[in-house]
Amino acid sequence: MKQNTNLFLTLVLLVSTLQFSFAQNDLITNIQGRKTISLNGTWHYIIDPYETGFYNYRYKERNEDDKEAYWNKPNEENKIDRVEHGYEAPYEIKVPGDWNSQKEVFKYYEGTVWYQREFDVPQMDATERVFLHFGAVNYEAHVYLNGKKLGMHKGGFTAFNFEIPKALLQKEGNFLVVKVDNKRYKDEIPTLNTDWWNYGGITRDVNLVITKDNFITNYGLTLNQDQDIKTALKNNKFQIDGSIKLNAVATNTTVTVEIPELKIKKNFTINGDEVRFSILAKNIHLWSPDNPKLYEVSFNFNGEKIKEKIGFRKIETSGNKILLNGTKIFLRGICIHEEVPQEQRRAYSKEDADKMFKEVKELNANMVRLAHYPHNEYMLKAADSLGIMVWSEIPVYWAIDFGNEAVLQKAKVQLEEMITRDRNKASLIIWSVGNETPVSPTRTNFMKSLITRAKELDKTRLVSAALEVAYNKEVNTIDDPLGQYTDIVSVNEYLGWYGGHPNDTQTAHWKVVYDKPLFFSETGAGAKGGYHADKETRWSEEYQEWFYEEQIKMMKKMPENYCGLSPWILRDFRSPKRNHPKYQEGWNRKGLIDDKGNKKKAFFVLQKYYKEMAENKK
Ligand code: GCB
Prior knowledge:
TIM Barrel; six-stranded antiparallel β-sheet; eight-stranded parallel β-barrel
């Protein structure tokens, strides 16, 4: 009997681990290419710091049909009825959007907020299915429809979806409730401590996705990574590799992939829920910053046609160089937080992305480091169409609970969700598995395991992580053991701000113990926009300008392996850690553009350097 129980437990565990580690298989991608009903707009809210709507007075999770659970519609039919919650004006909030920026009461709030709205659905075919898709909710979301729980998701910057059982769906007045909790915990990703604002809420688009009975959940389409790109260009013969994941098993069914501009139309037979294929193609104009060519691709299955614009390119390293389409490339980057400082809010829209990239272009940059978490998809679309290369990162930031296996699993889920959503973006060249993590064998194993997972899921991009360096008057040696496993060695360096003097850059020497490209994933100094003084006065625009001038002089003397930089940071951003009463007031001031949108003097120093680098094509 005991043996049977053990066997049963093992099976249960096996099944649940399998589901867990393949969670990304169910993520529906390319939402804009599908039949959707937007649930953006005005929702109602309840602020619930004690989680009264979730736990009863014995602090036990409420039963599904508990009338006092906030996922249930309050029923005040008779005047004697006792009801202690409700969703009504003026308790209204916009989705998408963080809550902090919407009402004064939310500014510093961290905890539970209940979101509620109603929606109707149009007439549907009997075979159609409905999914509820969230672009992102920070951090933990419990989703309920008409009193039933659809599911839970953790991770503040990645998408997720739940199917709505047809039997649960009403034609009118569907009562949708989301419990959003942005409290920070030691064993979450990110952890308790970050240098950015913990904006809470339903921060990205919400959609109902209407699908066929079986449909393409997600797919990948990239140039084959093993072909020699110079030979492919010479022979005008390219191999495109693809994979398509269906929502359910299909037998002997056809899926068609079309790229009309390349005169490609191919049928593939699916037996099961996945197919992998290769297509030979001619006359591909490869995607690059100079020519961000995208092709319209369509995937046809079961009477549904899903379209997406996709670019083809090859990114690789050769010794200490980064090659794009076989040619050495220098990354003229800039770091970005997903934030609109003028409105002290998270960025979430196409308009926000367009404004951000206008500044990136003005800087003469060809690359952005999207720090320190996956940004919204509009950012990636803008990058794809403008020819700006992208580094995308998961929030494995500073002192994560590295010894905890459950934390590693959480990081992996976020990594998988990030890769699944964006693996068809040509602009995306680097996956980063973290930032400034403290060196120890436990941490290195943790990070190595993330790198291995990233490479299993996607062979067509470089993998890195932003490392730190200990300053040394003789030579700054980058020897973090994690550098063995990353494709490029990336390091954050603040010589002249966090240590030393800006002049020290002139005698600084750099050494990397690995024969790999060296990328400065950060460097920067703070300045309050509009504050002018002599250059030795900290917080003045002149100090920051001088810092950049000295840094650039140093960069110009870097050894051969130097392949680019992404200074910290394009715009000033909110941070609870920055409390100087005159110069910071809750802002990290290392932006090249201040919180009013004004460019600081240092912007023009970097702009000039990038212009020279672009002209030299170094
Ligand atoms: C860093 C971190 C970044 C901080 C920045 C700073 O090294 O990666 O998140 O905001 O320094 O301003 O100190």
